[in-house]
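[Q] Does anyone have a clean structure-token version of this?
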Amino acid sequence: MNASADLMMAPVGGTGHPGPVPAVRRGACPSLDRPMRTGDGLLVRLTPCRGGLTLATAQVVCELARRHGNDLLEISTRGNLQIRGLSDDSAAQLSDEIDPLRDRFRFGLTVDADPLDPRDPNENGLAKAIVGRIEHEAEKTGLKQRLAPKFSMIVDAGGPVDYSGLKADIRLRLLDTQRWAILIGGTEATGRHLGDLAPDEAAIAACVLAAVIATLGPDRRGRDMPADQARDAISCVAPSFVPAIGDASHFRAANRKIVADVGALPLRGTMAAILSPAYGMMAADDLQSLIATAASLTDATNASRIRIHTVPDRLLVVTGLSADEAEALPDTAAAKRFIIRPDDPRRAIACCAGHPACASAHFDTHGLADLLVSHGLSGNSKQPIHLSGCEKRCARPASAALHVVGTAAGVDCLDEAGTVIAQYTRPDDTLPLVLGLPRFDEGRP
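[A] Here you go.
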């Protein structure tokens, strides 16, 4: 039998499978209290606290995923930790059992910021202060309850974790002048630049802007707000605000001195080892083995300092290591179940959960990804091949070399502008097109 024969849920026009359920409108957020139904059961999304998870807490998460789910954990594009395969009953049990650990996770308004401690202690200090004030104001005013479920902010001081390709309703970006640019909607490149302001006014400006967006309607997002109205709102609370001339005006962001990627990362007074589960998904047993291995590399006192972080680009970051420990961890048997080299070809593919994990998927995205790798796919993680099982296009990267999207008729291949350039009946028919794309060295044409 052809190795790719099972990529489709069923041959187009065939029988024997009920087919995918219609893709629901994007915007649902699978929280602990409101899990989302997928092809393999319910999914719960957890956001670890910025200090990271202790090894003991991470072990508990693995045990809960194995006991109540289907042993599968996932790191999302935005760096959240997802537990898959829950039933209605087991999801309720999970919620009860994780309740004593609620302080190890974030459940309020989504405010993303680099959780790692950079070598320069001032690099993220301002960002942490701004984030703290935003979260305090949001909690005090009940802001989250008035905003769309997926409403998010990003506070980016140019630390190792690169948030530039993630979309945000409101984005604060440190400039090389030590002022903060404020943008609404889109990524750092596509968001509308409103202007810049002083650090001590950044948090209140972001909160007021969010509150005004909430008045537009419960489902309104940053992209829906007129730029002039946004600038007027900021000017009322931030005397230092200097409006930008035009939505796409250029600004000089503070330089990102180093970008977190698979491998070793120097931090302030310590080291981190960065790995990635293939396509973002891992067995709870595999993560548990990695945790035990990390603890075994040092004594009990030092092991208590080790933290597990999940960050954007589906990276798993183990911090609190010595230089020798950070070098040794990727060479262990437990680490071999993860991507441990930045040039691993699987890093050049961004794919959603696909069939059978997602009920909306028309094909097995991970199966196609493995097939592409086995046929010699190369590329780079900054402009990957995007595989989406349905028209929702989940896991979409900021920039892709090609989008392969499942449809009721087969698969569509689209360029970055969204133009359909080819259509096929079966996913494996895309191999000649995908493998024939121009090859790029990492970050450089």
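[Q] Thanks! Anything notable?
[A] The longest strand covers residues 41-48.
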